[in-house]
Amino acid sequence: MILYEETHSHLGGPPCVPKGRKATFVLMDAPNTSDPARDEEWLMRARAYAKARHEGAGPCHDFSHVERVYRLAERIAQDEGADLLVVRLAALLHDIGRGLEPRMGPEPDRHEELSAELAAPFLRGLGLPEDRVEAVLEAILRHRHRRGRAPESLAARCLYDADKLDSLGAVGAARAYLWLGEHGRSVYYPEEEWRDVDPANNATEVDSFQREWRIKLSQLAQRMYTKEGRRLARERHVRMERILREIEDEVAGRS
Ligand SMILES: [Fe+2]
Ligand SMILES: [Fe+2]
Fold first, then answer.
1. Which CATH architecture has domain 1-149?
2. Mean pLDDT of all residues belonging to the chain
3. Nearest ligand, CA of residue 61?
């Protein structure tokens, strides 16, 4: 029997554990053979851990984002023939470091690294074989294009595409507005208000659904790595484009 303990260390404890208290996760023995019941148990424990880590997160990146990414990643992984256990675990754990990310400072945006740092001892505590631990960590680290880290393994590509898909389509529009609402922004901003703003400018004062589509979201469908990811992204791209057009028509009173 393996016990996995986590306290409020420098990385902070799970939000469900009061400061100064110790959380103990009782985990299974880890035989090396394939065992669906044991995989299910690992996934159940990873889900519970990730859910606790997402407690108190904003609505744009709450645990429902993880659940959607999980379903998409699973679907893409089945289509691609990727290691399902690795993809499922990576999907559950890919954003667990978000709550630790400093809002300001020299490195404000590195939640992929923080997520991998938290996931490593958790996965080893489960007893997951080391090659699979490495594969999950690799997928988590490469779920966003930062510091030249493109997703190279098949599992990393499945997770990358699934995560980006959640920013597209009807759900993508809903999430964009959740974000804008959190930052006091409104429904519609005409192009003349933002077309001359530097695309690298991330200030919330210039944020809008219309601008976000133009500088980022409209390009996502061309940047998918898997066949199924590309197919779903094209569908969602068309849907999102239509939503933007309909918003414009309704704002102008045409519809
Ligand atoms: Fe992320
Ligand atoms: Fe994510």
1. Orthogonal Bundle (1.10)
2. 88
3. 2
pLDDT single digits (tens) 12-36: 444 444 445 555 444 443 444 579 9
Report the C-alpha gap between 145 and 141 in whole angstroms.
9
Counting ligands in written order, the one closest to the CA of 165 is 2
Please check the confidence at residue 113 and state whether its pLDDT lies above 80: yes
Residue ranges per structural domain of the chain: 1-149, 167-255
CA of 241 to the centre of ligand 1 (A): 24
Ligand 2 mean position, distance from CA 94 (Å): 6
Q: What CATH code is assigned to 167-255?
A: 1.20.58.1910
Q: Which residues surround ligand 2, an ion (CB under 5 A)?
A: 95, 163
101 Cα: distance to centroid of ligand 1 (angstroms): 11
